[in-house]
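Reopening: structure tokens for the flavin mononucleotide complex, inputs below.
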Amino acid sequence: MENIIFFFSGTGNSLALAQEIAINLDNTELHNMSGGFDGDLSSFERIGFIFPVYYGGVPPMVRDFIDGLKLTKSMYIFGAITRGGMAGSATDELVEIIEQSGGKLSCEFTVMMPGNYIAAYGALPDFIQKTLLSKSDEKAKKITDKIKVKLIDQNLKSSRDTTPLTKKMPDFPTFAKDYRVNHNCSGCNVCAKICPSKNITMINNKPHFDSVCQRCMACIQWCPVAAISYKGQIRARYRHPEIKAEELFRK
Ligand SMILES: Cc1cc2nc3c(=O)[nH]c(=O)nc-3n(C[C@H](O)[C@H](O)[C@H](O)COP(=O)(O)O)c2cc1C
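Re-run output (same inputs, fresh job):
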């Protein structure tokens, strides 16, 4: 393959964007960050990172994943960040993270998609989701055109002088202590397979949550019987309509 795109995705938005860009680019391998990576990146023409913004920043798992890569300044590296609202300092943070791994970000984009932070709100009405998703498909095409010609944005700035908000949140990985499982749970194991950080163990056919949660909300959103919730709250689930749970299972 000529190009590689690494993605991190809880509810499929970032995967759908990665797939769209990969199809438009052609000859592109997709790789879930939750599976780790120890290959050689030097032969790829283009290297992409696609993921959601969390609390105005880069999700810790994405930061850790990129930290573990060997990048060089001669590589063409792009980023695309999906968001439900404001990207905050995620774009500046990505510049800094890539720099710390030895690379240089060539260009980056943000793409508005339906929000999925079910700890605070439920899924948007269908018609709003459809509008956002059709606009994001259009944007994916425009992004691909720029990546194809290897656009270099000279105006990217780095957040190296500020501490990312997620790093100031000591309770970040223990979020799942507030997840609840109700009697609808059938023990199907989807939550354990989809969790990007192996935070879920099935005990007596019921999920138990450890303290390495990435807050992606995948377990809540993809449970086929809506048995998992945040603090027992009843809210409409969101999942990207063109993505299947299996596509997000940890490899
Ligand atoms: C923990 C968490 C924090 C989030 N913080 C933000 C935010 O600060 N700004 C924003 O625009 N969207 C935020 N979102 C929404 C997601 O970035 C957005 O819905 C994204 O497209 C989800 O991508 P995914 O389906 O690939 O997981 C947040 C979502 C989660 C789960």
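The pocket of flavin mononucleotide is lined by residues 9-14, 52-56, 82-86, 88, 113, 115-117, 215-217, 240 (CB under 6 Å). The chain has two domains: 3-148, 167-248. Marking as resolved unless the reporter disagrees.
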